């Protein structure tokens, strides 16, 4: 059992390294197929330990997508941010941070309406970071907007409910 666990850990580390290395080299379609493959492997794995490894790899990919999306948005690289955001959405569709970053993306492209829709989706998925909505200057233009106020209220409710 210990040898199997050691093998799984080595395999997982190697696959994490490969996923991180491949992240910027492939498009959304390729990643959709890769995530589908990882999902199938998790379902068909011969042991719970191996299944858990594949789930962790998908979660790891979500983290890599978050970091790359955030970096691209911070550097004004909207084309790459859009691709990375799409991959994030495939890897971790229930993550409210995906919608939060989508809101930033939409603000940066000048679409406040879509940004508010994304923020409402983040709140609906349990987003709790009230301070980020007030402190991130990208949202300054939304302050006073009734839809933004609704989002703030929902996020505050999420925060208090944790």
How would you describe this structure to a colleague?
The chain has 162 residues and is an all-alpha fold. It is built from eight helices and no strands. Helix 4 packs antiparallel against helix 5 (96-108) and helix 6 packs parallel to helix 8 (146-161). The radius of gyration is 18 Å and the shape is elongated. 28% of the residues are buried. The model has no long low-confidence stretch (mean pLDDT 96).
Range of strand content: under 5%
Largest sheet: none
Helix- and strand-based class? mainly alpha
Counted beta strands: 0
Summed over residues and divided by their number, the pLDDT gives a mean of 96
Shape assignment = elongated
Q: How do the helices and strands follow one another from N- to C-terminus?
A: HHHHHHHH
| Low-confidence segments | none
Number of helices: 8
Estimate percent helicity: over 70%
Rg from alpha-carbon coordinates: 18 Å
Cα-to-Cα separation, first versus last residue: 37 Å
Concise overview:
The protein is an all-alpha fold and 162 residues long.
Please describe the structure with a list of short key phrases separated by commas or semicolons.
162 residues; elongated
Helix-strand blueprint:
Elements: H1 2-22, H2 28-44, H3 48-74, H4 78-91, H5 96-108, H6 112-124, H7 130-135, H8 146-161
Helix pairs in contact: 1-3, 2-3, 2-4, 3-4, 3-5, 4-5, 5-6, 6-8
């Amino acid at each position: 059992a210990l040898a199997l666990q050691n093998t799984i850990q080595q395999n997982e580390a190697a696959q994490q390294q490969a996923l991180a290395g491949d992240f910027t080299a492939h498009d959304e379609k390729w990643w959709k197929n890769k995530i589908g493959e990882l999902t199938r492997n998790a379902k068909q794995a011969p042991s719970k330990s191996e299944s858990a490894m594949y789930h962790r790899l998908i979660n790891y990919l979500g983290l890599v997508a978050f970091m790359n999306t955030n970096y691209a948005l911070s550097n004004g690289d909207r084309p790459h941010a859009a691709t990375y955001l799409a991959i994030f959405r495939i890897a971790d569709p229930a993550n409210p941070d995906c919608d939060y970053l989508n809101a930033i993306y939409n603000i940066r492209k000048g679409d406040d309406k879509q940004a508010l829709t994304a923020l409402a989706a983040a709140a609906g998925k349990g987003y709790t970071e009230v301070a980020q909505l007030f402190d991130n200057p990208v949202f300054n233009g939304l302050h006073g907007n009734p839809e933004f106020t609704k989002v703030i209220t929902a996020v505050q409710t999420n925060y208090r409910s944790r």
